[in-house]
Design a protein that fits this description.
The protein is of the alpha+beta class and 729 residues long. Among the domains are: 171-223, 30s Ribosomal Protein S14, Chain N (Irregular); 284-405, no CATH class; 446-533, Immunoglobulin-like, CATH 2.60.40; 563-708, Sandwich (Jelly Rolls), CATH 2.60.120.920. A hairpin with a 2-residue loop joins strand 15 (453-455) and strand 16 (458-464). Helix 7 packs antiparallel against helix 8 (384-405). It starts with 19 loop residues before the first strand and ends in a 21-residue tail after the last strand. It is found in: Cytoplasm, Cytoskeleton. Residues 168-217, 229-271 form the B box-type domain.
Amino acid sequence: MDEMEEELKCPVCGSFFREPIILPCSHNICLACARNILVQTPDAESPQSSRASGSGVSDYDYLDLDKMSLYSEADSGYGSYGGFVSAPTTPCQKSPNGVRVFPPAVPQPPPQHHLLGHPGSLPPIPRNSCLTCPQCHRSLILDERGLRGFAKNRVLEGVVDRYQQSKTAALKCQLCEKSPKEATVMCEQCDVFYCDPCRLRCHPPRGPLAKHRLVPPAQGRISRRTSPRKISTCTEHELENLSMYCVQCKMPVCYQCLEEGKHGTHEVKALGAMWKLHKGQLSQALNILSDRATEAKEFLVQLRNMVQHIQENGVEFEACLVAQCDALIDALNRRKAQLLTRVNKEHEHKLKVVRDQISHCTVKLRQTTGLMEYCLEVIKENDPSGFLQISDALIRRVHVTEGQWGKGTLTPRMTSDFDLTLDSGPLLQTIHQLDFIQMKVPSAPMLQLEECCTINNSATLSWKQPPLSTIAVDGYILELDDGNGGQFREVYVGTETICTVDGLHYNSTYMSRVKAFNASGVGQYSKTLAMQTSETGQSPCDMQTLATVAWFTFDPTSAHPDIILSNDNLTVTCNSYDDRVVMGNSGFSRGVHYWEITVDRYDNHPDPAFGVARVDVLKDVMLGKDDKAWAMYVDNNRSWFMHNNSHTNRTDGGVSEEATVGVLLDFTRGILIFLINDEQQGPVAFEGIEGLYYPAVSLNRNVQVTLHTGLPIPDFYTPGEADLSGSVC
């Protein structure tokens, strides 16, 4: 019950409801809080027609009043809904709690007389008081009854009381002699609370006590304190009991309301019968909601399992990433060792060459120095004859030695620089570009059987990726066999999801399949589809004028979240007052197609729209508001065509409950035509239709429709011939 607590708290004070009253918008508020947020409005801005309290004006009445320019001859006919009637039009500001605060009004003298209240009743409310719902911000002008005009929500008050009682301290056993134990049951007949030992000792489950009813302590306390149900009295005739229910105003009334009030001409039913009927309806709605809650719980279990799997996969993936990076680091270290080895070899080679040259030059220098010293000593001799005997030989030796030094001997054979430059640029760029790539191949495509067909010796196949698949797809490969059970061969490779293969054999059965591919590889094949070509040939003109009979339903995966589908996705309605879009699960790009939509329920003159749309059409506005949809919207009197928010061709004649709206899409002429009750509605709605289109509908909660497909084209329509200039037979 803890989840219910927020439903039992006032939106103004945040505490549990105390004396809650029901506003016309069906929201609840404490009586004291309602007095606190009252504001006063000027006399001139509070017409009697705008006053709203608990007098029984239904939400649908406000919708009818607020539907603008529906019957204007100059407008487009599109009715804009502003919600509920606003009370005053005086400029106002919003306080932090969402309540409108109006400019101070000229003080009005208090009324000389008002309805007398019972002792302890609330003081009188000033005239022209305005109350704004803190949840939906709908403003209401109170009448002379003030807050007493709103019905008290006794059911909510009782639920709050029971909830608060269930939260109090546990009950004790009434038969324990010393320290009482916590009670586990209560006997409704004995009116005594028992713990388990005392129940076995004093209230055995046999004999005359076996028929007594034992209930949990909390339930027993509630049943003990519950007083007989109070008889409800009328808010307008306080001495009269509420005994009937006004079907039109959707509120309980008394006999005096039927005799004197505005409910005299309305349809009324017995209060008890309507009480049981609405209880049954609420039970049915709760059963559906319970199924949704069960699905939500299962979905939460699935999500929690996904969290666990994500954590496990995350640890595994992180370990794999660390291992891959470590492998790269190891490879870089190995390469580093190889490059260092090359540097060391170059270093040793340079040292060896320089050291050899040093040794060679040292020996030659020693020889040269010895020769020079010897020649100097010879020059010192004074014996001419002896000098001349050796002078020629010494001169030759000196020249030879000098020549040896002049042949590059004094030039280094090796430079000190290392002629090695590490080219790390490409590797650094590769490291910077290191990233994750798509490692999974695509899932197997799904063949869209509604769009797959054969005409003469041509076969058209259409497919799509699974709805929840997020793997990137670069293209598709379509394969057909030879029509005689032979091997498959590729007939198409590309990014399109629809393909027509011409030139097949007549009266043959071809097996077809398709698979998707991306950078990681090729995925699995789809299911194999057998397609039978025609027994005899037809001319291209005949082929183009054939109507395509297609079966499809509404698509829950692409519909707006407010859309409610039933009847195997053939019946649709909405839980919002705003227009919401739902599309068919099949798209069309060629041929002639016709489908019908019957109106099952039509309340308060809404404007449903019917037509075709692109796959990326807006889902939260009326069909035809953007440039992705071509539609006809219609009320109970007339219709308009709309595309890209442009309204054209207003035509008399509307829809009602059990009406039928037909949509004729002819790609051979490129036109779109609408019908209402088997009669064409207006001229050709749109021309130049080409590409891929999906059937589409927009509606709100006041409309429910059912889709009918697989229908032949109407008898009055003769399909046209397509332009065959580009056809190849």
